[in-house]
Amino acid sequence: MDVNLRFQKEKIKFTRDKDLSGLTFFRTMGRAEYFYEPKEPEDLIEALGYAYRAGMPVSVIGSGTHVIISDDGIKGLLISTRRIKGMTIKGNLITAYCGESLNDVINVGIEHNLMGLEELGGIPGTIAAALKVNATSQGKSISDYHFCSDYLTLDGKIHRRPDYKDFFGNQMSGIDDGEIVLSVTLKLEPSKRTAEARMRKERFVELMFIPPINNFVGQVFKDPEGMKASRIIKDLGLDRDLGMKVEFPPFQSNSIFGYQDARAKDVYRLIRLVQRQAEDKLGIELKLSVSLLGEFK
Predict the structure, then answer these.
(1) Residues 201, 204, 210, 212, CA torsion sign
(2) Under a CB-based contact definition with an 8 Å cutoff, are residues 60 and 79 in contact?
(3) What residues are paired with 58 via a beta bridge?
(4) Angle, alpha carbons 104-108-113 (nearest 5°)
(5) Residue 173: C-alpha distances to residues 184, 258, 272 (Å)
(6) How much is the pLDDT for 297?
(7) What is the sign of the dihedral through the CA atoms of 264, 265, 268 and 273?
(8) Sign of the Cα pseudo-torsion (123, 128, 129, 131, in order)
(9) Confidence (pTM)
(10) Which residues are CB-contacts of 91 (< 8 A; sequence separation ≥ 6)?
């Protein structure tokens, strides 16, 4: 059955056999059986509800900074939330929809004399992704400012999660794969020292600078307790050219960069190489910060 029949007289249209090569920072060549990119929360809710009733598997991505999509593609419906944008400010609370970039949220906060997130400047990706991985830099985490968040379950129902610290951990949150962050509300610190905040934020943007290349995967592994994944990769001697189509560069050794003809399978092989060596040589289990979508062998 053509899933578009349900929406043929409405504004929602699923795209069949969608090429996904331009939807992630790592330009894989996989395809989605069905694809949808809503611009409004209501459209996302309606699409989820339909897919749920039709028994379709659903995967969700944002701006694609921390996602690897299999070269063989994805079955079912893939939804991109990167165009669902908008921000509101009430007092010292700033609410951002899931498609807003973390950097834009930081900038708007500063413009309205709301500070606190400057140390997270330069971290790529959306506010939703930042919450899911509890983005952390220079000892500050986004969970330090979390007031509440709204999320959707795969049946299209909306829920609200208030702040409680046990929900967040080291570069992780309790957000399940079956939960889609719709909006995030942060409680920031009122201050009129905007010039100082901008300078502080730009300093951290420089530290997180990502070269403008085509194939990039950010923050591949979570930091083990009391350790840095980047340091482990360096200690293993894997932050160099290994004769593969992808590599961990020495200047950002927990990120993967690929050559033009690199594929998702090359990224996966490098990830597994690091995990095996960390386990065999150091007795350390490296857990993924990125998401793998589709089947990998």
Answers:
(1) positive
(2) yes
(3) 77
(4) 145
(5) 13, 29, 23
(6) 80
(7) negative
(8) positive
(9) 0.87
(10) none
